[in-house]
Design brief:
Low-confidence stretches: 14-19, 80-84, 341-388, 393-403
Largest sheet: 8 strands, mixed
Helix content: 25-40%
Mean pLDDT: 79
Radius of gyration: 29 Å
Distance between the termini: 87 Å
Shape: elongated
């Protein structure tokens, strides 16, 4: 008797649902993508109990006739690809033909659709068609999904809290809205509005709807291309960052994707402009011939592989770095108006938190959501096509001559032996003398490391250091590299080394500790040794040790010399660790703070 049997369609659909339908946001994603592929210009997502009870997606797309409305729930039924060649030229968001069948197998689903004639209403529960009847002739489609995982209690039990499920849905809807600013999106939960975009095809307005006006003002537009790729979008000023990389949003041919190498390149482009453990806000559109990308990797269709990946990474990195180099990046400290209380109905929730179970890392979500109160100047811009376009923060100016990127300023005093107070005709500046000196020293040391000058200083008393046998082996393997850095180093007995000379850029008076730190860096980088990153880390470490410490008084001449040196730096706005070197108060802000002018 045969043991192997072919599974019935309902059972196979439930198994497929394990990959396609992971949580409420998976259902929303599949339904919204279908609406976009149907040519919709308006898509409304209405949730009850964060989608666990009900998810309703309404669009004004082209709709379906009765035959297609029934066929759409069959597995591998799709209108988007017809043969194998189509897999290499995918222009739609969906193409597998698995989503509706998988969703229908674990929910109670109702479809109402029409192409302008007599509409069709289909009701399916647990994969079984309960009814098919005529409906109204409204062009478009309405899909209502109720009681997710009602027949798979194990899956239902492992859904996250209501707030976490809602956060995942709003996170996805934020990203899909950014990828299609030409579509009007709205999201509600229990009749409370969470997102509303105007569909004006203005990406900056869409960013404003999601992040608010304060972030929007501090976005920089970028645009570039090479023989294979075109990139366009917005990146945040370095002063605007988040604790997770979830706000690095990459869009390829209208599809929100994730690629670890691309995200890493974007973040590395901000190196030394911000703290390394924080990430910028980026919305990057990438246009490329469909034959150069592969999205047929995972059922979620978010993972992607690129052809000529190195060209794309270089284009993105060079574009961001070049843009940052031509911007005045001094944080502007604005006077604030006291916040006014708002009623619950007026509050717009901003679920600016990471999604769970990202491929690169698993984020922990705080379930204690509270309604967000915003000041008047945080209001979302009214959705009115007659409104003027939102403009990027006008304090940021582009300079053709990078040497003029740092404004001229004059020191007037020192506060707490740490902060230099400066002024010019437009306002007041506060410089962190330690951070500023760090930047100056960092660029000096980095330059010397890059030029590999054969300059060193013999030590009056050679330094002998003993290590464990494993550390000694690693260090011995890198003797040649250390000698290129102008260290005169040799073996000295069992598991010991002797340093007889060191490079000229080590901090005077603290040479022994600096040498030990350099050798420790060589040992610690043994498993992932990258010369450029090592040099950068080494320059940052030495710059910190060579810099003026806090609570150290300096003269007015020394202040002016430090400012002059800072203005010569390639990036005078941040220390090597990403902290700001200078902040700015405009003259009008000072007058407002002291009530010398109206608010």
């Amino acid at each position: 008797m045969a043991v192997i049997k072919i599974m019935d369609e309902i059972l196979s659909n439930k198994i497929a649902a394990g990959e396609v339908v992971e949580r409420c946001s998976s259902v929303v994603k599949e339904l919204v993508e279908n609406s976009i592929d149907a040519g919709s210009t308006e898509i409304n997502v209405d949730l009850i109990e964060s989608g666990i009870k009900e998810i309703k997606v309404t669009d004004n797309g082209k709709g379906m006739d009765k035959e297609d409305a029934i066929m759409a729930f069959n597995r591998h039924a799709t209108s988007k690809i017809t043969d194998e060649d189509d897999l290499y030229h995918i222009h739609t968001l969906g193409f597998r033909g698995e989503a509706l069948a998988s969703i229908a197998s674990v929910t109670d689903i109702e479809l109402i659709t029409s192409m302008g004639d007599i509409g069709t209403k289909v009701n399916i529960k647990g994969g079984k068609i309960l009814s098919v009847e005529n409906s109204d002739a409204r062009v478009g489609t309405i899909i209502c999904v109720r009681d997710l995982f009602y027949n798979t209690p194990a899956r239902l039990k492992h859904l996250k809290s209501l707030y976490t499920e809602l956060a995942n849905i709003t996170d996805y809807m934020n990203k899909i809205a950014l990828s299609h600013p030409e579509i009007r999106f709205s999201v509600t939960n229990d009749s409370k509005e969470l997102l509303k975009t105007d569909g004006s095809n203005n990406l900056l307005k869409c960013i404003n709807s999601i992040y608010g006006i304060n972030v929007t003002k501090k976005m920089i537009d970028i645009k570039a291309s090479n023989s294979d790729y075109e990139i366009e979008g917005f990146i945040s000023l370095p002063e605007v960052y988040r604790s997770s990389r979830n706000n690095i949003i990459t869009i390829v041919n209208g599809r929100v994707v994730r690629n670890a190498d691309l995200n890493r390149t974007i973040n590395d482009s901000y190196h030394s402009y911000k703290p390394d453990n924080y990430y910028p806000i980026v919305v990057l559109n990438i246009s490329v011939d469909t034959s150069l990308v592969d999205v047929n990797i995972h059922p979620t269709k978010m993972d992607i592989k690129f052809g000529n990946m190195e060209e794309l990474l270089n284009l993105v990195s060079d574009t961001i770095k070049d843009k940052l180099k031509t911007k005045t990046l001094i944080p502007h400290i604005e006077s604030t108006i006291p916040k006014k209380k708002k009623n619950y109905e007026e509050v717009k929730l901003n679920f600016d938190i990471p999604t769970v179970n990202e491929v690169e890392e698993e984020y922990i979500i705080n379930n204690d959501f509270k309604e967000v109160e915003k000041s008047d100047n945080d209001n979302i811009v009214p959705i009115d096509e007659k409104n003027e376009d939102i403009k990027i923060y006008d304090e940021v100016e582009v300079h053709e001559d990078v040497k003029d990127i740092m404004p001229v300023m004059y020191p007037v005093g020192l506060v707490h032996g740490t902060y230099i107070i400066c002024q010019n005709e437009i306002g007041m500046y506060i410089i962190d003398q330690h951070a500023a000196k760090e930047r100056v020293n960092y660029e000096i040391v980095k330059d010397k490391l890059g030029r590999k000058l054969h300059e060193n200083v013999p030590m009056m008393f050679p330094l002998t250091i003993e290590y464990t046998n494993s550390e000694y082996i690693i260090l011995k393997e890198n003797f040649d590299f250390l000698r290129e850095l102008n260290f005169e180093i040799d073996e000295f007995g069992i598991n010991s080394v002797i340093v007889k000379a060191h490079p000229t850029w080590l901090p005077v008076g603290n040479e022994d500790n600096a040498i030990k730190k350099v050798l420790e860096l060589v040992i610690s980088k043994e498993k992932n040794f990258d010369l450029n990153k090592f040099n950068d880390h080494l320059a940052a470490t030495m710059a910190c040790k060579m810099s003026i410490k806090a609570n150290t008084s300096i003269t007015m001449d020394e202040m002016q010399n430090l400012i002059d040196d800072l203005r010569k730096c390639k990036n005078p706005f941040n220390c090597p660790h990403g902290r700001p070197t200078v902040i700015y108060y405009s003259k009008s802000d000072l007058e407002k703070l002291f009530k010398r002018s109206g608010f």
